[in-house]
């Protein structure tokens, strides 16, 4: 029997189990394949830990949050093994052959696309399914996980309005999204945040404080500020850009290593962005300020209808692509269709919010401050 493997990698996300189920059911039912699932992402692949995904294992998981397979952020070419960092790609190739796999489906976000591309280059037949609450995968309209997270973050902003309004406070709410502003922008608009700060638009403290003061002058003595975790003020953005340029320009491996260390320091010193901002706003406006970091709440729990649909659709399409022998692709969602896009065009290609995106225009149209 034709045999395929599947793994989930990167951060957990709503819709992962829907995708595993969609893939598995189509592979077994439509194409007569056998499916095994690797535990804990790339680590389980390197350690050859897997479980059979038969119809019993695939049953009753559609609505379950997280991933029944477990996940990790391990990289195949740089995996920590004891005290060492080891290139596990040759071992993975060996396991793939030993397990008699015809294809491996890697379900994950941007990091997983890069790892999947590495494995494809090593000769494995790879299919990548785009999952992430960040919605930052190139060539796919939406990744599964985003819709549920959008709903959760919107609900949180709704609820934060109660306290902001009742106590006449500024509430700074930090929203995930890695280096992209999709989640903060979408939930900020849907939740009616007064100011939305994105990685794509560096903000100035003066502009944010002025928006809050203008609201207060109109009788609204409270404000909800939705800030993406990757958002930075102008000064910090310049610091970061300079540090990134140093990394790119470094000639020798030693210079590159030193530049990377510097970049990490710059990033680390900018981590408590939301807290710094709240403190600065309190000083600038005289309004009491508080911070809420939504964190993992955004990726937890049962997927919404959109993510169940998308996971099922892309999973089934993945099985069909394997059956017809198409490999080395991301199964992208474009319009209503599942479209194979070469992994080489997806890996390492982050989809941030374009400044001319209709969501940006929509936010400005309702008077939302964007910090610029
Ligand atoms: O990619 C999903 C995500 O939740 C990002 O929004 C966030 O930057 C990151 O993962 C957090 O990573 P970790 O799960 O390792 O804390």
UniProtKB/TrEMBL annotation:
<dbReference type="InterPro" id="IPR035966">
    <property type="entry name" value="PKF_sf"/>
</dbReference>
<dbReference type="InterPro" id="IPR000023">
    <property type="entry name" value="Phosphofructokinase_dom"/>
</dbReference>
<feature type="active site" description="Proton acceptor">
    <location>
        <position position="134"/>
    </location>
</feature>
<dbReference type="GO" id="GO:0005524">
    <property type="term" value="F:ATP binding"/>
</dbReference>
<feature type="binding site">
    <location>
        <position position="169"/>
    </location>
    <ligand>
        <name>substrate</name>
    </ligand>
</feature>
<keyword id="KW-0418">Kinase</keyword>
<dbReference type="GO" id="GO:0030388">
    <property type="term" value="P:fructose 1,6-bisphosphate metabolic process"/>
</dbReference>
<comment type="function">
    <text>Catalyzes the phosphorylation of D-fructose 6-phosphate to fructose 1,6-bisphosphate by ATP, the first committing step of glycolysis.</text>
</comment>
<feature type="binding site">
    <location>
        <begin position="73"/>
        <end position="74"/>
    </location>
    <ligand>
        <name>ATP</name>
    </ligand>
</feature>
<protein>
    <recommendedName>
        <fullName>ATP-dependent 6-phosphofructokinase</fullName>
        <ecNumber>2.7.1.11</ecNumber>
    </recommendedName>
</protein>
<comment type="similarity">
    <text>Belongs to the phosphofructokinase type A (PFKA) family. Mixed-substrate PFK group III subfamily.</text>
</comment>
<keyword id="KW-0460">Magnesium</keyword>
<comment type="pathway">
    <text>Carbohydrate degradation; glycolysis; D-glyceraldehyde 3-phosphate and glycerone phosphate from D-glucose: step 3/4.</text>
</comment>
<dbReference type="GO" id="GO:0005945">
    <property type="term" value="C:6-phosphofructokinase complex"/>
</dbReference>
<dbReference type="GO" id="GO:0006002">
    <property type="term" value="P:fructose 6-phosphate metabolic process"/>
</dbReference>
<dbReference type="InterPro" id="IPR012829">
    <property type="entry name" value="Phosphofructokinase_III"/>
</dbReference>
<dbReference type="GO" id="GO:0047334">
    <property type="term" value="F:diphosphate-fructose-6-phosphate 1-phosphotransferase activity"/>
</dbReference>
<dbReference type="GO" id="GO:0046872">
    <property type="term" value="F:metal ion binding"/>
</dbReference>
<dbReference type="InterPro" id="IPR022953">
    <property type="entry name" value="ATP_PFK"/>
</dbReference>
<keyword id="KW-0067">ATP-binding</keyword>
<dbReference type="GO" id="GO:0048029">
    <property type="term" value="F:monosaccharide binding"/>
</dbReference>
<dbReference type="Pfam" id="PF00365">
    <property type="entry name" value="PFK"/>
</dbReference>
<feature type="binding site" description="in other chain">
    <location>
        <begin position="132"/>
        <end position="134"/>
    </location>
    <ligand>
        <name>substrate</name>
    </ligand>
</feature>
<feature type="domain" description="Phosphofructokinase">
    <location>
        <begin position="3"/>
        <end position="320"/>
    </location>
</feature>
<keyword id="KW-0963">Cytoplasm</keyword>
<keyword id="KW-0547">Nucleotide-binding</keyword>
<dbReference type="GO" id="GO:0003872">
    <property type="term" value="F:6-phosphofructokinase activity"/>
</dbReference>
<feature type="binding site" description="in other chain">
    <location>
        <position position="229"/>
    </location>
    <ligand>
        <name>substrate</name>
    </ligand>
</feature>
<dbReference type="InterPro" id="IPR012003">
    <property type="entry name" value="ATP_PFK_prok-type"/>
</dbReference>
<keyword id="KW-0479">Metal-binding</keyword>
<feature type="binding site">
    <location>
        <position position="11"/>
    </location>
    <ligand>
        <name>ATP</name>
    </ligand>
</feature>
<feature type="binding site">
    <location>
        <position position="290"/>
    </location>
    <ligand>
        <name>substrate</name>
    </ligand>
</feature>
<comment type="subunit">
    <text>Homodimer or homotetramer.</text>
</comment>
<keyword id="KW-0324">Glycolysis</keyword>
<dbReference type="GO" id="GO:0061621">
    <property type="term" value="P:canonical glycolysis"/>
</dbReference>
<keyword id="KW-0808">Transferase</keyword>
<dbReference type="GO" id="GO:0070095">
    <property type="term" value="F:fructose-6-phosphate binding"/>
</dbReference>
<feature type="binding site" description="in other chain">
    <location>
        <begin position="296"/>
        <end position="299"/>
    </location>
    <ligand>
        <name>substrate</name>
    </ligand>
</feature>
<feature type="site" description="Important for substrate specificity; cannot use PPi as phosphoryl donor">
    <location>
        <position position="111"/>
    </location>
</feature>
<feature type="binding site" description="in other chain">
    <location>
        <begin position="176"/>
        <end position="178"/>
    </location>
    <ligand>
        <name>substrate</name>
    </ligand>
</feature>
<dbReference type="GO" id="GO:0042802">
    <property type="term" value="F:identical protein binding"/>
</dbReference>
<dbReference type="GO" id="GO:0016208">
    <property type="term" value="F:AMP binding"/>
</dbReference>
């Amino acid at each position: 029997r034709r045999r395929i493997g599947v793994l989930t990698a990167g951060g957990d996300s709503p819709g992962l189990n829907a995708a595993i189920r969609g893939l598995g059911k189509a592979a077994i039912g439509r194409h007569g394949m056998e499916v095994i699932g690797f535990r804990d992402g790339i680590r389980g692949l390197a350690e050859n830990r897997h479980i059979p995904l038969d119809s019993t294992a695939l049953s009753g998981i559609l609505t379950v949050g997280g991933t029944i397979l477990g996940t990790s952020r391990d990289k195949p070419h740089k995996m920590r093994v004891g005290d060492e960092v080891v290139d596990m790609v040759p071992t993975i190739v060996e396991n793939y052959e030993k397990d008699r796999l015809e294809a491996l489906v890697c379900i994950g976000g941007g990091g997983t696309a890069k790892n999947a591309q590495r494995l494809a280059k090593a000769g494995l037949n790879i299919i990548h399914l785009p999952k992430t609450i960040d919605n930052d995968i190139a060539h796919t309209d939406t990744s599964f996980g985003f819709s549920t997270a959008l709903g959760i973050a919107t609900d949180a902003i709704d609820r934060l309005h109660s306290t902001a309004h009742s106590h006449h406070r500024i509430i700074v709410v930090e929203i995930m999204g890695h280096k992209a502003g999709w989640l903060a922008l979408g939930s900020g608009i849907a939740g009616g945040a007064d100011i939305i700060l994105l990685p794509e638009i560096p903000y100035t403290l003066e502009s944010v404080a002025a928006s809050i003061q203008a609201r207060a002058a109109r009788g609204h003595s409270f404000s909800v500020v939705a800030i993406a975790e990757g958002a930075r003020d102008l000064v910090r953005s310049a610091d970061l850009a300079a540090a990134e340029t140093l990394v790119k320009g470094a000639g020798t491996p030693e210079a590159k290593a030193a530049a990377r260390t510097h970049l990490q320091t710059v990033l680390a010193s900018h981590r408590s962005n939301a807290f710094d901002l709240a403190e600065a706003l309190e000083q600038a406006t005289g309004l009491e300020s508080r911070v809420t970091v939504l964190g993992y709440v955004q990726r937890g729990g049962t997927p919404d209808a959109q993510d169940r649909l998308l996971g099922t659709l892309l999973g089934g399409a993945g099985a069909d692509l394997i059956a017809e022998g198409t490999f080395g692709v991301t199964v992208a969602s474009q319009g209503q269709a599942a479209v194979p896009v070469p992994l080489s065009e997806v890996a390492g290609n982050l989809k941030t919010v374009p400044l001319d995106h209709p969501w940006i225009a929509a936010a400005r149209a309702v008077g939302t401050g964007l910090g610029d």
